[in-house]
Amino acid sequence: MAEQLTSIRDVTQLEELLSEPTPGVVRVLGDLRGDILVLGVGGKMGPTLARMAKRASDQAGVTRRVMGLSRFSSSALESKLHSWGIETVRCDLLDPKTLATLPDADNVIFMAGMKFGSHGREWTTWAVNTFLPGLIADRYRSSRIAIFSTGNVYGLTPVSRGGSREEDDLNPSGEYAMSCVGRERIFEHFSRANGTKMTILRLNYASELRYGVLLDIAQQVNSGQAVFLSMGYLNTIWQADASAMSLQALAVASSPPNVINITGRELLSVRAVAKDFGAALEKNVIFEGRESSDALLSNARKSRELFGPPQIQAGQIIEWIADWVKRNEPTFAKPTHFEERQGYF
């Protein structure tokens, strides 16, 4: 069991754990019928989510195609997906000529999006995050669709409130967050117009050992950089738990879309997390600034009621990351910029 491990040996073991299906995923994918298509499988979360779908389907005794679509700038990733039994489709989704050639699928996971590099390329950000969803919603109008969105659509919320809820008004800051609201609204339009069953997953932050807000803090502490406190609190969730909830969300898709926050149950203090890493890495911690009274936070009570609590808690992730960083194991070298308060990514 993952929660019993004190150390994760290497990338192979990490990807095994990140794709290990929960009993809930096995049950849901055993009940659902039809193939699964993951659009945007080449991102940080896509490969192990697709693998989890394949493993859960096999464990449930269901024969289905699990397909991953991406531009696949890395042939190594495509080969790895093939080794896991996942079919791949090379495609630029913004090329309208390719839409008609995409494989049919009863179940679609929409993970395509643009965040980093959006500041300065706002036109591309809006094309990917709002125009593309309309194309996909029309093409897969008869499918169930689980759509990845973000907690950024809520904007900053008072820490004392405990996190934004699904029924809260949206208050996006910056063009990335505004375009994500646009993504949700476009999908909602097509869901209402065509009766397409959808879930919108407002994820607030998935963490693993190669990427995530906790790794950012660990690396800052380990290298002697200052840890900024302006965004003084955060939520995060172990990526395998986020993938498991996202796959189960196919079963609760509805028209209009069912909106679900996905994150861990803990409200984490950046200062306390940095001190934990300092102790584990035997490093002095340098802080800069002070905590604000608000932060980007989500209340994920609804997801816990639907899918159960995350299996891995933040303390365990911190322990694993500290060990990973201490051993200088590989990372994606892509900071999250979680401390950004103005929405510039």
Question: Could you name the CATH homologous superfamily of the domain at 2-208 and 238-264?
Answer: NAD(P)-binding Rossmann-like Domain
Count the DSSP helices.
12
What is the β-strand count?
Answer: 15
Helix content: 25-40%
Order of helices and strands: HHEHEHEHEHEEHEEHEEEHEEHEEHH
Supply the CATH class of the domain at 2-208 and 238-264: Alpha Beta
Description:
This protein has 345 residues and is α/β, with parallel strands linked by helices. It has a domain at 2-208 and 238-264: 3-Layer(aba) Sandwich (Rossmann fold), CATH 3.40.50.720. Helix content is 39%, strand content 15%. It has twelve helices and 15 strands. It has helices at 11-18, 23-31, 46-60, 75-83, 96-99, 122-139, 175-194, 213-223, 239-248, 270-281, 301-307, 314-326, and strands at 36-39, 66-70, 87-90, 107-110, 144-150, 157-158, 198-203, 206-207, 226-228, 233-234, 237-238, 258-262, 268-269, 286-288, 294-295. A seven-stranded parallel sheet has the order 3-2-1-4-5-7-12, with helices on both faces. Helix 6 links the parallel strand 4 and strand 5. The longest helix has 20 residues, at 175-194. The radius of gyration is 19 Å and the shape is globular.
Topology:
Blueprint: H1 11-18, H2 23-31, E1 36-39, H3 46-60, E2 66-70, H4 75-83, E3 87-90, H5 96-99, E4 107-110, H6 122-139, E5 144-150, E6 157-158, H7 175-194, E7 198-203, E8 206-207, H8 213-223, E9 226-228, E10 233-234, E11 237-238, H9 239-248, E12 258-262, E13 268-269, H10 270-281, E14 286-288, E15 294-295, H11 301-307, H12 314-326
Parallel strand pairs: 1-2, 1-4, 2-3, 4-5, 5-7, 7-12, 8-11, 9-14
Antiparallel strand pairs: 6-15, 10-13
Helix pairs in contact: 2-3, 2-9, 3-9, 6-7, 8-10, 8-12, 10-12
